[in-house]
Amino acid sequence: MKRKYIFGLMVSGTMLIGTSCNDFLDYQPEGLLSSENIKSASAAESLVTAAYAGIGNDEMIGPMTSMWVYGSVRSDDAYKGGGGVSDVAEVDFYEHYNLTRPDFGMMHPYTWENFYKAISRANAALNSLNGITEAEFPLRTTRMAEMRFLRGHSHFMLKMLFKNIPYIDEKLSSDDILKESNVRYNHDELWNKIGEDFQFAVDNLPQKQAQVGRANKLSAAAYLAKLRLFQAYEQDANHQVTGINKNRLQEVVTLTQQVIASGQYSLQPDFAENFIAETENGPESIFAIQYSINDGTAAGRLSYVTGLNYPHGAPQYGCCGFHQPSQNLANAYRTDANGLPLFETFNDKNVDFANETVDPRVDHTIGIDGHPYKYDATKPFSNAWVRDPGVYGFFHTMKEQQLATSPSYHKEGPFIGSSKNIDIIRYDDVLLMQAEAYIELGQQALALPLINQVRRRAAASTGRLKKTDGSFASKYNIKEYAASGWTQDYARKALRWERRLEFATESPRFFDLVRWGVAAETLNAYLEKEKVRRPFLATAKFTAGRDEYLPIPQREISFTKGLYVQNPGY
Fold this sequence. Notes:
Residues 283-570 form the RagB/SusD domain. The chain has helices at residues 5-8, 41-54, 68-73, 89-95, 108-130, 140-162, 174-178, 187-204, 217-232, 246-262, 327-332, 362-365, 389-392, 427-440, 444-459, 488-503, 508-516, 519-533, 554-559, and strands at residues 78-81, 233-235, 241-244, 285-289, 322-325, 357-358, 366-367, 372-373, 376-380, 396-397, 409-412, 415-418, 422-426, 475-476.
């Protein structure tokens, strides 16, 4: 039985339940707690718990946790998958960068609404906490810092997706919210507003929390570092990177060093342990959305956001074959005789797993015919499990899935849920964020041991990849980078490659490309080759100055009577 204390506190009388309103501005938390009775310690604690639940209250058509559609399928990491291009066609629109259609109504409009509902929950808790004293509730300041961390998370995700968003805090009345424009703050100012929430959390949270799932000082420092890294790459109004702010990079170094020097977090010994429920909340998980099963409720608190992505043809799963890794991604795992990536030639031909050497992370990430599936050698992945290989090829995603025998797995009709946590920030990300900052500061020698630490762990992560006869389906060869020839340009290339392989299909890829200012050149080069391999991509094209961000949902512009300004190009 998997129980998590922070969500075990929740009861139906204190939950804030989403409504069917057409707009987040109409959203009012429902339940037994009202403006008249929220100013007590017990009510505040219940609202805090509900706010934690709010950041995980997503769905297949309104993702908040897994960004597999927005960050993986929109990048060079994966295809939509499923039963052809018309199966959940909205996801195909993202893959083709075709979001100006008048019939488009799913996905990101619901994501927008879901995040603002989560912000509403955090603000409701803050209003309650503002109405009581430290004497009445000794944890008041800590809980306020947690709520500002959660609010910062939701605003960060919205900004990463949409760029120009309204910033909503607990001080705004309902009338004020209706007047809050999505372009009140410029790009840099909005980063700073969101950063204020994380800084408050850094200043007021304890380094450790007794209860699993709560934000702490170090998770806030890691998140603030992530924000400053995004902010360091300065953008103009058309989303083009115009420079890199060295002061912001130094902040990244300082904040990540606070996390690293604490000794509180470390890499899991085996990369696999980040992707199975049995080892979640381990030393690498800095902040994660928590889920549960067999927790005393009817169906548990499960995540269904990736529930379409299990093998379609496998009898133990049966739905629905979405999110298939690209041939380009599979090729990126090829290594040379020195165990290093083939930066320039990786995509010249398709990888031959029987005869070429590869980075072992490929078998943690991609389901390949005859290779152990999700660390179960007795049931190797089969090409027969793929739903539409004629369109999307034979590879299958694996990181987000759990075995049908896992205690975290639950099937509800054709759909699949899991109680496996979804990590928002891991320690590997902290190491690579610091490495990136060092490289862009011209201190690439300091980045070398950080990147090599990640590669060393990858090399040691083969224990769960053996077939039943004890052999490996792939030929692994991964080595550390040498100090010789470690120039800034080479280090930058290595860092960006490492981020792709480490987080492949987890969604950061698209947002990294936008942050670095190389999305258009990278993705259009990817599409030029992929159109030959996958004809369904024939009309796909990334348009610079538009496709870096999602359009502001039209229903929000209409609801605010034109107060919100649409993003460029839409």
